[in-house]
Amino acid sequence: MKHDLISRRRFLQAAGAGAGMAALAACGATPTAAPAVETAAPATAAPVEATQPVATAGEKAHIIAVDTGDGMALTTAFVPFMEQNPDIEVEVIGVAWGAFDQKVDLLIAGGDSPAIWKPADQRGYRFYADKDLFPDIGPWIERDAYDVSDFVDTLYDFVQWEGKQRGFPAAHFLAVEFYNKTLFEGAGVSLPPTSWDDTDWNWDKLLADTQAITKHGDNPMQTVWGSGGVFGRGESAWAFGGDYFTDEDYVTGKPTKTIVNSPKVVDAWQYMQDMIYKYEVEPTPADSDIAGAAGIDLFLSGMTGIRFGGIWALAEYAGIEEFEWGMAPA
Questions:
Q1: In the chain, at which end, N or C, are there fewer CB atoms within 10 A of the end residue's CB?
Q2: Which carries the bigger pLDDT value, residue 225 or residue 6?
Q3: How far apart are CA 146 and CA 132, in angstroms?
Q4: pTM, rounded to two decimals
Q5: CA-to-CA separations, 187 to 212, 279, 309, in angstroms, rounded
Q6: Are the C-beta atoms of 38 and 27 separated by less than 8 Å?
Q7: Do the Cβ atoms of 141 and 147 come closer than 8 Å?
Q8: Beta strands 61-68; 88-95: pairing state
Q9: H or E stretch covering 61
Q10: For 301, how many CA atoms within 13 A lie in the half-sphere containing its CB?
């Protein structure tokens, strides 16, 4: 059975669900050249409204932004904004990925809700929108004639809840294939195509290529893997044209059932399992743990032929000099 490597419609839905969203909610100050950036009311407060609060005379309005990492990049990005709006002070709090949701919840509970954040961990913006913590920013967009045409329609529409605009898409990370050109050419296999429309590039071809590249050693650290990881176990179903929820559930944001046992999802999971345990072209979770404990990135170290990931890895992979590598659409 042949499968396209990914359904673009499903990918856009997934990207919309996972992309960083700039969340806005009430109790702060109003910028002069952009929609108001405001902080959310505590989790126990009544629904917020898109009103225009006034800062205390002589005092700066203080708003909080939460970002992953050390927060320095976002801090730097806000410098021009604060220079143009000296009555507004933006405090950026850097948090580790795994602690992001907890930090946001603690800030809300303490009455210092973040004005700007992104769904960096397990919760999307709809989790909070359903609790009436985000106002409708549509009136501010109209008031300032803010141009939203640069946003991808799918992502912009996704940041809506109950027919109201609750925020802006902050990022759109494309899924791509990073491949080791040196390993591909050494194994005598053709490079992944650069076109979405190449029908010869499918799951059967991927398996054949990774089998040709794989060279097993005495242990995982001496093995060259054909694949360092296809899609995450969640995205795999979308890649095979399946899904875990219905189209209606994506619109409402409140799934009523799962279709995880549909044939396409079962096929996807079986393929991912076979890559590891049947064909042995991809490291097992235990093998990956060994590499991780040693601080080794299998792709960076030249130990894998292809790795599916996102364009956020470009900054790290740009420094590779030990082998030639390329990037293709996933």
A1: N
A2: 225
A3: 24
A4: 0.71
A5: 6, 17, 22
A6: yes
A7: no
A8: parallel
A9: strand 61-68
A10: 15
